[in-house]
Amino acid sequence: MNAPVKPGAVSAGALLIPLPDPAIRFEQVGKTYPGRRGQQPVAALAGIDLDVPAGSILGVIGRSGAGKSTLIRLVNGLERATSGRILIEGEDVTGLNEAGWRRQRRQIGMIFQHFNLLSSRTVFDNVALPLEIAGTPRAAIAAKVERLLALVGLADKSARYPSELSGGQKQRVGIARALATDPKVLLCDEATSALDPETTRSILALLRQVNRELGITILLITHEIPVIKEICDRVAVIEGGRIVEQGETFSVFTDPQHPTTARFVEAVTGVEVPAHLEGQIRAEARDGDSLVLRITFTGENATAPVISRLSSVVGVDVNILAGRIDAIAGQPFGSLLVSVPSRLPESDAVLGALKSLGLKAEVIGHVS
Amino acid sequence: MSPEIIRLIVQSTLDTLTMVAVAAGIGTLLGLPLGVFLATSKRGELFAAPAANALLGVLVNATRSTPFIILVVAIIPFTRLLAGTSIGTAAAIVPLTVASTPFIARLIEGAVREVDQGLVEAARAMGATPVQIVRKVLVPEALPAIVLGLTLAVVSLIGFSAMVGAVGGGGLGDLGIRYGYQRFMPDVMATVVAVLIVLVQLVQSFGDRLARRLNKRLRHA
């Protein structure tokens, strides 16, 4: 008997191994807004194909107006797709009516750039709101809210009003509120864009913790590449309403295919040529010049003892001009700008040694 | 002033308070849902009903653009139908309510429209029904502004209530016209004005205080 093949099933010989349904799946999703009087309709999104694997954190990055807000709002029905299908845990939600969406939304938490806390309610009552809406009994609400506030580290702020909290604390309340109904999916709409870098890191750490400990799938949108670098397992780059590149964060960052992606990741991966050298670097070599190389370290090679190897094995002096070692999605990644003697045969020996170490080296130019 | 006059002033003050309180009470009961509906029923809003919104908008504007003294006279048949008479304090409540309801509705519409749309979106994302959004988000968040609006409405009603004296409505305004002006008793006129000033002051400062207490957006010491 032939079992119907579910989307996402892989056939291994005669055996069908069903893959777990992705938490969220977009299939050829489009969203077109009707044009205002006498104007053309506006396509906000077109041909979106995207899987958010269950239990993962996927980040969608794009500039403002790229369509990321619309994309995230399609998942909880705040916006409706005009073409294609959206599946949540394998269930097609595209045709749901408003009542169906209301039930669905109780399974999906959402946090916002400007927190959207009710100023008239205390921290406790803000977190209790989704439970009140779902009709949870009072006693159960109190126990649940206490537990959530402890989870986000605000147990002592229960009776405070949002106006008495800092931005980071407000977002923690937002996270506690979003988790109140035990959702399987958490949507983050530019959740850290209104926060300073340090607070951003602490909120991202909390999101990572929530993802790991509660197994919640997170779909986030952002225009800040550090957010993707810090916590996203996968990334999708959106531009002009289309996804131009997607994949695992580390591979997208270390080997971007699309120019937009390259521009985004440059800020966190590339080492720019220091300003004082920029004018001195020439394309063609002159006598006595040094060769400027950019060496890229990825994965296990990131810790290779490259400098000592070059000086001891090849016997050349290596001059470090700039560099950084960092982690992308938890994997080490580094990039180093160096100058080495440009005369043969040393320069060839250097390039050969780098190659044998499995490092990517790119010639930037020559400097005297 | 004779004890008789003092008794009249006390009685008129009570009449004014009754008229204003009842008219403001009924006006709020009717104006609150009307205002919330006006604030949430345009195209694409929570209770989208653009035709009903436009119709009610016209009705509200028509009532508000009719000078109060003309409204009082124009709706006499309606007043007689409701109150059984067109003279006296009870009858005066009818035009006062008719005038205050659209006024209060507009004030409440404005207060509700001031609520951050992000909060409505957050509530929708939680799976709230439109009615839940109104009860748990829009009205509580708009409450400080609603209280200030109602304060303004009560102050205006105190002013309007002076005019119903023209049709035998009683109250302080009536007393001021009949005794202070027509019988030329400046002391009565001065007392009436003083009592009105005190009333308005009390209402305004009570409203301001209440609104400030309800407003959790400000940090309290």
Task: Give an overview in words.
The complex is a heterodimer of chains A (368) and B (221). Chain A has 368 residues and is of the alpha/beta class. Chain A folds into 2 domains: 23-268, 3-Layer(aba) Sandwich (Rossmann fold), CATH 3.40.50; 277-367, Alpha-Beta Plaits (2-Layer Sandwich). Chain A is built from 12 helices and 16 strands. In chain A, the strands form 4 sheets. In chain A, strands 8-9-10-5-11-12 form a 6-stranded mixed β-sheet, with helices on both faces. In chain A, helix 6 (197-214) links the parallel strand 9 and strand 10 (217-222). The longest helix of chain A is centred in the middle third of the chain and has 18 residues, at 197-214. Chain A is elongated and about 80 Å long. Chain B is mostly helical and 221 residues long. Chain B has one domain (3-214): Orthogonal Bundle (MetI-like fold). Chain B is 80% helix and 0% strand. Chain B has 9 helices and no strands. Chain B has helices spanning 3-40, 50-65, 68-74, 76-83, 89-113, 117-125, 130-163, 172-182, 186-214. In chain B, helix 1 (3-40) packs antiparallel against helix 7 (130-163).
Please give a quick description of this structure.
The complex is a heterodimer of chains A (368) and B (221). Chain A is 33% helix and 30% strand.
Helical segment count of chain A: 12
The end-to-end distance of chain B, rounded to whole angstroms, is 48 Å
Task: Specify which chain pair forms the largest interface.
Answer: A-B, 28 and 23 residues
Strand content bin of chain B? under 5%
Strand content of chain A: 25-35%
Task: Report the sheet with the most strands of chain B, covering strand number, pairing sense and barrel closure.
Answer: none
Low-pLDDT stretches of chain B: none
Instruction: Please state the second-level CATH architecture of chain B.
Output: Orthogonal Bundle
What integer is the average pLDDT of chain B?
Answer: 93
What summary fits the major beta sheet of chain A? 6 strands, mixed
Number of structurally distinct domains of chain B? 1
Helical content of chain B (DSSP H or I, runs of 4+): over 70%
Q: List the secondary-structure elements of chain B in sequence, H or E.
A: HHHHHHHHH
Q: Which CATH-level-2 architecture of the largest domain in chain A?
A: 3-Layer(aba) Sandwich
> What's the CATH class label of the largest domain in chain A?
Alpha Beta
- Average pLDDT rating of chain A: 88
Question: Which stretches of chain A are low in confidence, meaning pLDDT under 50 for 5 or more residues running?
Answer: 1-12
Helix content of chain A: 25-40%
Strand order of the largest sheet of chain A: 8-9-10-5-11-12
Number of separate domains of chain A:
2
Number of helices of chain B: 9
